[in-house]
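Holo prediction. Input below; ligand is nickel (II) ion.
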Amino acid sequence: MTVIPTERAAQVIAWRRWLHQHPELSFHEHRTAQYVEDVLGTFPNVSVTRPTPTSVLATLTGTAGPGRTVLLRADMDALPIQEDTGLDFASQTPGVMHACGHDGHTAMLLGAVQELSAHPDTVHGEVRFIFQHAEELFPGGARELVDAGLMDGVDAAVGTHLMSPVPAGVIVLRDGPLLASPDSFELTIHGKGGHAAFPHTTIDPVVIAAQVILAFQTVISRQRDPVKAGVLSVTTLHGGMAHNVIPGEVTLGGSVRTFDPELRADMPRRMEQVVKGITDAYGATYTLVYHTGYDAVNNDPGLTQVLREVAAEALPDVSLHPGEPLMGGEDFSAYMTRVPGSFILIGAGGPDAAPHHHPKFDIDERALEVGTRMYVAAAQRLTQPE
Ligand code: NI
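Structure of the complex:
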């Protein structure tokens, strides 16, 4: 059983609070990366590099003998949100906040490096601890790190995310689909503006947009197997400036999410078919721009089963749940395109906790010790030779 000494657990909380006070936006994590690098510099037996300007990699070679190479990942970026928690360690940067728990992820992974670097004889092979930048902003930091060669020689990848709706003391280990592919689109409908009193002299893009939005709701619900989950949400709609003017164009945009690669690949074509049909019928034209986001997070069942055994043995006080697939997205999927990976959700809240990306978001800090122990136990087990 892995036991993190109490003073080390308190240290993880202290790191988290410093990071919480000093949040930085995606691709701008300069101070954060320097802080992480400085803390890592106080540990023995690890080498520290910067694969990109705002990411930090610590590498530990175990002294227990040859073995496998495992990647442990934490993300470090914050969000453009004005914090409203009233915490005494609230963000000191106006308009920027750690509202997704990435401060906790970074602190937990620092805790894991501290623990393992003090006991390299508990590790075979090699552990790569990646403190990743820019998870929140497409194209994401993970892809950049993969391109920089981070995954060369790696056998398995493990990431964690603190989860606000799940109570502390619970770990979610799920086989297969966990998080969706978050794609997005922007659509402009070009009509012909004019006087609101004379609609017959215009091509009214407002009415056309209304029909497109409703027809979009049938693309997944009427054209696809209902057992295969997907969602198309129109989230922005802009057009017009005056009550007596029909505008010349309307723009709208939204999000398309699914776990199913086939549905994902098919969506731009199906949406365009709807838009083309409706705009053609009214003599309007359109511009549809479709953005492909992160791939879905699909946990490797074999690796996840090993992690389940690891958790049951090393964290007997924690309860394991299979969880449910979520339509959220994560760029951890970029690592999974290269090696078997598993993304673990660590309970850090409860049913009454504020949701992620909310100005009042906070975590139950008892979760930090759970996450740290999970990282440590996973590294010790997954680096063992096969
Ligand atoms: Ni997050």
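The chain has two domains: 6-179+296-382, 181-291. That is the main takeaway for now.
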